[in-house]
Design brief:
2 domains, 15 helices, Rossmann fold, 421 residues, globular, 7-stranded parallel beta sheet, alpha/beta, 6-stranded parallel beta sheet
Length: 421
């Protein structure tokens, strides 16, 4: 079988599936604007954008134009592959940036499997969730959100089937998309991501931390409100006052992954640090920036308590990997987190908007490490039983691909399989 993978930053969610298909003898080719790595048996090709956005385009359709430009670039790269004789049987595409818009026109006979990550709504999910950051013009903002889905709708309409990592994310999709969708998580390599009581970590070339130390961890791709950075920082003064030996490790960049940049300029990291820094012992607060993956895992292995907060939005890999590593996750009581963490069973949940409640839970967790050991074990058991890469998720993904290729699944009204993991 021949596969074409398309992802702006390949491999993204395909880092395990693409090489697994190649390993069984399938031909695998990948396209991306900025592919980040090579994978065994995968021919990875980059393609370039030929233009930028129009200067005076209507602001409600600027996002659409961006995605059409990317879709056009991907289409031309696909046609170049076709001219060289490559015709995929299955196209795996993440349509979030527009790459899936015109692949049907390039390869009309191929089956298209779209990776569905999220469908935006003007209210009831991430947009408008946090009243601290109101929209300047809510009605106009809602219109812009509606248009943000335009490329998604076209791409998903062209797809034969879709796959989504969580049930809550799948619930954001229109019903006609859910009718041709399976829910399968990306997968966690629990054999590799496992607890290690002997783990240690060096910070700033001088401080050595182990699992015996009192370590509070917080991880974002970028430190921003969507992932609760402001709430975490506001909880820190009380935490650090009550736990004078605690070390705080904050991992993440200074850019914006989701939502808007600060209106006043600067970074969210600095804005909320400035708000509380007079109440903190900054010698115990360590901003690491972004770190290599192996270092990130060591941070989580030495963590006494790990805070994960999020708007109702896409669930982060970091939370699932933290649970696999045996961390005690203190998460926000929001829909994506509730799908995985049950309060007092395999983690702890707090009101997203309550720094006070967060501080209380963290202080308790830091003070009573042994008491929460069963929750750590239960967290890892949850990941092994429901989200393990090799025993559950990857086999389900491959079965889905084969079912689509054989015609068992498709856009002709076949029922979905929403509980494959």
């Amino acid at each position: 079988m021949r596969h074409l993978f398309v992802h702006q930053n390949f491999p993204g969610q395909y880092k395990n599936l693409a090489p697994a298909l190649s390993a069984r003898g399938d031909q695998v080719v990948a396209l991306g604007i900025t592919p980040r790595s090579s994978l065994p048996g995968v021919q990875t090709l980059a393609y370039k954008l030929e233009r930028g956005n129009s200067k005076d385009i209507h602001p409600w359709v600027s996002d659409v134009e961006t995605k059409v430009i990317r879709g056009e670039a991907c289409f031309k790269a696909a046609m170049a592959l076709k001219a060289k004789g490559f015709e995929p049987d299955i196209i795996h595409v993440h349509p979030g940036w527009g790459e899936g818009l015109f692949l049907r026109e390039a390869f009309p006979k191929a089956k298209i499997l779209a990776f569905f990550e999220y469908y935006y709504h003007p209210d009831g999910a991430d947009v408008g969730f946090d009243a601290e950051f109101p929209r300047d013009n809510p009605a106009a903002g809602a219109c812009k959100v509606v248009m943000k889905n335009a490329a998604h709708i076209l791409s998903l309409n062209a797809a034969d089937w879709a796959v989504c990592p969580t049930h809550w994310q799948a619930s954001s999709a229109p019903s006609w998309v859910r009718d041709k969708m399976s829910v399968i998580f990306d997968g966690v390599d629990t054999a590799d991501l496992r607890p290690d009581p002997s783990a240690w970590l060096k910070i700033n070339d001088s401080l050595r931390l182990t699992a015996d130390d009192e370590v509070l961890t917080f991880i974002n791709r970028n430190l921003e409100p969507y992932r609760g950075y402001h709430v975490f920082m506001r909880a820190l003064p009380a935490i650090m006052k009550a736990r004078p030996k605690a070390r705080i490790l904050i991992v993440g960049g200074n850019e914006v992954s989701y939502g808007a940049a600060p209106k006043q300029g600067g970074s969210w990291r600095q804005i909320f640090l400035d708000e509380v820094k007079g109440q903190l012992d900054l010698s115990r607060v360590h901003f690491t920036g972004r770190v290599p993956y192996n270092v990130l895992n060591q941070i989580l292995r030495v963590s006494t308590a790990h805070v994960y907060l999020t708007y109702p939005f896409v669930l982060s890999w970091s939370m699932m990997e933290a649970m696999s590593l045996g961390a005690l996750v203190i998460g926000s009581d929001t829909q994506p987190v509730r799908e995985v963490i049950k309060d007092g069973v395999n983690g702890l949940l707090v009101d997203f908007f309550s720094p006070h409640e967060l501080a209380e839970k963290v202080i308790e967790a830091l003070a009573n490490r042994a008491h929460f050991a069963p929750l750590r074990k239960a967290a890892r058991d949850t990941i092994i039983q429901r989200y393990d890469l090799k025993s559950t998720c990857l086999p389900a993904q491959i079965s889905l691909v084969d079912a689509l290729a054989s015609g068992v699944l498709g856009s002709q009204g076949h029922p979905s399989s929403p509980n494959l993991y």
